[in-house]
Amino acid sequence: MIKKILVQITSLFKKHPIYELKEVFTPTSSADISYISRSSVEKKLKKALDIPGKQIVIYGHSGSGKTTILNHIIKEQNLKAITSRCTNNSTIDTIILDAFDSLNPYYTESTNISCKESLTSSIASEYLGIKSSISSTSENSIGEIQKRILPPQLTIQRLCNFIGSAKALWIIEDFHKIPEIEKSKISQMMKLFMDKATDYPDSKIIVLGAADNGYEVVQHDTELNNRISEIEVPLLTTQEIVQIIEKGATALNIDISNETATEIAKYANCLATIAHQLAYNLCFNNNISKTQRKLVTIPNSELTQAVADFTSEKQDTYKNLYMKITQQREGKYQNVSIILSALCKMDDNVTQHALLTKIQESTPSYPPGNLSTYLKQLYSPEREEVLRNNAGRISFSEPFFKSYIRMLNAQQS
Please, are residues 377 and 237 in contact by the beta-carbon 8 Å criterion? Predict the structure, then answer.
């Protein structure tokens, strides 16, 4: 109560900048206004960026904040960067072409750059010459497909020169999606950037997306072992999620109670993207589209609808997955449902014994043998590998799915 009164008094005398809701809670893009510092990760990243030739691999779960932290540091240090986003169909050629295209502003607008920062006329001319040679050709298969051809003069060495001369970082996102054979080629590109560190100390490749570790890159070239900085971005803590909500609420001049923020953190399962979506839903449902002139309090009860909206938006994807993996022959126990329901109430990386204990709190007669049998299935493609076992520790493979089950259970209870 005292906290609420103090917030209301402060809001009367403090002039708030006006922010749009979509600027504050950003479920599909990097956070800026509601960004919270993660000093340990930021310190490692700043150190790696400062060392010439040191290439960087940033890994962690989708939604853990990898891109947000990187973008924050780039903005804070006023660095230049280009970004290539990978897909399952990406090849080294398409990645090189994408990077080449992204350099366009640095070369076509170089006349607007100060003399100290301007590109040499020779490198700029070389870039524009290659640009003019890139064309499309038609290939007939089932239909007509436009395919861009990588010109022979656009080698990785030349691309390295172009990026280096622009003093830019090259960010390669979703590295884990590309075919294995292409990953080895990216490793070779990173080695080239290392070797060019003397000529271009400000440029390097930053790879994002290797979910469990940075070994996906290093394994393809042993020479990279001591010349790459592998930086893990862990999932957010409950307190960090609460801080995001509080910071966003302050920007919008609204009051979201600590109880509601903590509940959002629980549903978000340590993922910033889900926390942002739930907070966005909460504001949208209460007609909060921008910073309020007077403090507005959002009741705790409004979170129920925000959660229902999130569940509805993911209905097709996660409902189909849940229905598929919970199907089984008639039996005494709905095994998969029981296991997932118990696991989503626990922290990540639990032992099988701890999971059994949790299950038997609500289903005392549940057999240990059933748990062993169905866990093996849930680790395998037979049940879509929705769980994983790392050195005897069990967790959801996809934190988003865990969040969905947690919300689904809350609605059904």
Answer: no
d(CA 92, CA 132): 21
Least confident of 198-202, 210-214, 279-283, 381-385: 210-214
CA distance 369 to 23: 50
- Spatial distance between the Cα atoms of 391 and 399, rounded to a whole number of angstroms: 19
- The average confidence (pLDDT) of the chain is 86
What's the whole-number mean pLDDT along residues 350-371? 96
Amino acid (1-letter code) at residue 277:
Q
Return the closest-CA partner of residue 250 out of 6, 42, 64, 70. 6
Tell me the per-residue pLDDT of 39-88, one tens digit each, with 9 for 90 and over.
Answer: 999 999 999 999 999 999 999 877 889 999 999 999 999 999 999 999 88
Residues in Cβ contact with 18 at an 8 Å cutoff, skipping those fewer than 6 apart: 290, 291
Give 186's contacts (C-beta < 8 A, 6+ positions apart).
Answer: 92, 95, 172, 175, 178, 205, 207, 217, 220
86 neighbors 59 (Cβ within 8 angstroms): no
For 267, the token pair is 């549903």
The residue among 236, 217, 239, 237 whose CA lies nearest residue 227 is 217
Instruction: Enter the tokens of residue 329.
Output: 């022959």
* pLDDT at 13 > cutoff 60: no
**How high is the pLDDT of residue 2?**
62
148 - beta bridge partners?
136
Question: How many whole angstroms separate alpha carbon 25 and alpha carbon 248?
Answer: 7
pLDDT score for 113: 44
318 CA to centre of own chain: 19
Residues 6+ apart with CB under 8 A from 260: 245, 282, 298, 300, 302, 303
More confident: 274 or 108: 274
C-alpha 276/C-alpha 400 separation (Å) is: 13
